[in-house]
Amino acid sequence: MKNKSITALVSAFARAYHAEHNQIKIFDDRLARELLTNDEYTNISSNMSKGITFFLPEFTGTQEECLRAIVDWQLSPSPLGRAAFAEQALQNAVTLGARQYLIFAAGYDTFAYRQPDFADKLQIFEIDHPATGDDKQRRISSLHWQIPSNVHYIPADFLDPDWQKGVLGCPAYDPDQISFSSLLGISYYLPKDSFKQLLSAIVMLLPSGSSIVFDYPDELTFTPQAGERTQKQLMMAAQAGEPMQASYSYRDLEQMLEELNLLIYQHLTPAEINVQLFKAYNDSQPAHPITAFDNVNYCLAVKR
């Protein structure tokens, strides 16, 4: 990827919009808006609201009402849900002794700059393609944010077979320290063999007891049985030049992780995501419900 990721920017927009427009939040990314330029925020808002007939053909309302409907229906569920799941799992991992947080394909993630109290025990590593990472660093510099002393940016092209050298070469990284890794929004865009290779490489970096969290599309994603939102998500990703390439049954996933010496510790289906992560928000905003995509699951796996 030579240019900034459109899907990463749209995900940041969804997190920013949700944080700005709700008191009770699924996930509170209070800094996401600052990472987007005014032009980016305005352009995404305009383009999305103009696409109401694509997303919700029967909907009528003002431009702002159209935007809210699209954000809540199509854009927000996955970025909000998986971030909430990952950071809850991270906090639990820190309680159990994890002292390193590896954020793979960090994109415009802001955890490193809005660290909760429990993060003071962590070394945080943002590992991303140089193009995206450099773009994010430019944005941070223009905002005059101070980079916390426990945050480390590591450029890595995951297509390079030796990308792990960048992690191992970072003076702050300890390969013997229990770690927590996140790979959010990645499994969709890699062929199965490539995703397995990436997981395998990550597992080799980590000691036993370390954990990895990721989201993944189920086996119906590329079939006629996929939900309407899923089909539109596939179209949007393809039009952005970042087509989705893989899907997994639970059995596929379990077998792959078993081969990599990983044990599924927690797994959430869409129905469970709605109950565990979305209920408080939906109870507070019955006029603007957010529901999990019917083809997306979350997984937390632990290295044996």
TrEMBL record:
- Keyword Methyltransferase in the entry? The reply is yes
Q: What does this protein do?
A: Exhibits S-adenosyl-L-methionine-dependent methyltransferase activity.
Q: Output the Pfam families linked to this UniProt entry.
A: LCM
Family, similarity comment: Belongs to the UPF0677 family.
Q: Where are the transmembrane segments?
A: none
What is the protein's name according to its record? S-adenosyl-L-methionine-dependent methyltransferase
The record's keywords, sorted A to Z, are: Methyltransferase, S-adenosyl-L-methionine, Transferase
What EC numbers are recorded for this enzyme? 2.1.1.-
InterPro entries recorded for this chain? Ppm1/Ppm2/Tcmp (IPR007213), SAM-dependent_MTases_sf (IPR029063), SAM_mthyl_Trfase_ML2640-like (IPR011610)
Which SUPFAM superfamilies does the record cross-reference, listed alphabetically?
S-adenosyl-L-methionine-dependent methyltransferases (SSF53335)
